[in-house]
Amino acid sequence: MRPAWHRAVPPTTGGSPLSRPSSPAHPAELRAAARHLLRRHPAGPETPGTGDRPGVGRRTLLTSAGAAAVLAFATGLPGSAHAAALDPARIKRDPFTLGVASGDPLPGSVLLWTRLAPRPYETGSGLPRGSFAVDWEVAEDDRFARIARRGSATAHPEFDHSLHVEVTGLEPARVYFYRFRTGKWISPVGRTRTAPDPGARVRELRVALASCQAYHDGYFTAHAHLAEEDLDAVLHLGDYLYEYPVGAGGGARAYRDRKLPGRFDRETRTLAEYRLRYGLYKSDPDLRAAHAAHPFVLTWDDHETENNYAGRKPENDVRPEDFLLRRAAAYRAYWENQPLRLPQRPKGPDMRLYRRLHFGRLAQFDVLDTRQYRSDQAYGDGWQRPGPKSEAIRRTMLGAGQERWLIDGWHSSTARWNLLPQQVTFARRRDVPGPGHKLSMDSWDGYPAARARVLAGAEAAGIRNLVVLTGDVHVAYGFDLKQDWDDPAARTVGAEIATTSISSGRNGTAQPANWSRLFEANPHLRFYDGRRGYTVLTLREHTARADFRAVPAVTVPGASVLTAGSLLMIAGSPGLRPV
Ligand SMILES: [Fe+2]
């Protein structure tokens, strides 16, 4: 049976027009504040202490930037505008059109999310500018007969009426059901699961990997199948949305039964535009089903902000202060629309997204952010011949603070499996065999010194069973991680599982044109499939197994799912084995 939240959201029209991209996108005082920040810290993350270190870096940045800039970026926090509390009886249409979500499970705690949006395709989502009280409850059963926790929270207009409820006092390693209510409206029911106790012996952990869901490239059918899987959590590895224009027919979806409003047919730049884009994506019934079925652990890639940006460097030639404001808008809309906890709430153009999650003694997840602090791509980005510019020692992918945090954290890891959910391909990946090959300057191949530092850090910390989990590439890969990439006989030090896209790239094929060439060029490549889908990772004490799920097509709804291939890892014996 399809759950109630599968119902389609009817397209809406009307509403107030958005500012055009050609007009000044951001208010003058914000642009002045951003200019001020840049003047004080013109360098990017390669300069130590410019915002890439948690705490110290940001404090330095903000203190020296001055109170005016801080105030300008902080406007829009609840209380600053004194929005009135309104009677929920004023909500005349179902406000739970975007469904519910949960995220970042801890032992006995989970984060619950929803956003009130009676008209998600309109700026302001069809609500007056005021706050609304929303009740929530968590139960042991889906009929809500045995309530575990309940409470009330406030949906603030400053956060676009989103709710982030950190529920504590739950049992560890347990399934719960949750829902929200405001006025006469009750949300769909979500299912979630808390993490096990830190010392618990966990027999099995099942997570799905997902990434790259371009709405305009096809249907999110993979999410409908992912919703049906038996999982502890979903790791979303970025490109949750794309900033590109979406036409009236939804691009490759080729809608015949609806027309999307013209306000989606432009690149997202402002806070209002990013918020609307989440409204469009989250109105997709398959994505809502996935969120309602499992807790999500998310990190972003570039498209939640802008294609291939690096730290404070935009893709294109725009004024630096404009990009900083765009980043602040994108980060804020991201947090508002995702089941993320309060420490992840952005401060202006900064957001602490990297964080660590544990699942008993079985698994440690170090969730990375490879966008916010990285050096600019070398040689103008894209596929290039490597050279001294890409190989410079000082180049960073994580920023000094995050890199230190990662390696320090590994030193105290007692986990059987150490997993690195992150965005871009970690293993070396040559495009052709032999001399004259090129590498992707946007992936870790463009930051080889940083990659070597991470691998050396893992080795020095003595962590067990390193598995890098990757999105971004729109194909499924399995790589052995080598101590020396030039020597196929060199020691294997870990594995990388890259999940394919949910929909980006439209319909894929099992063996893309470069299939044989890539295996020849990269002896440590163990698996490659070019179809759309997701990946299920099953961790046990002695084995880890990756099952690459694929859907034959995304340009038509309702495709079936199959397993394109499976790989096995044996604890203590690094390297991928075909199943
Ligand atoms: Fe992507």
TrEMBL record:
Residues 13-22 have a biased composition (Polar residues). Residues 1-26 are annotated as: Disordered. Pfam families: PhoD, PhoD_N. Residues 208-548 form the PhoD-like phosphatase metallophosphatase domain. Transmembrane segments: none annotated. It comes from the Bacteria. Residues 98-194 form the Phospholipase D N-terminal domain. Coiled coil: none annotated. PROSITE patterns: TAT. This is Alkaline phosphatase. It comes from Streptomyces qinzhouensis.
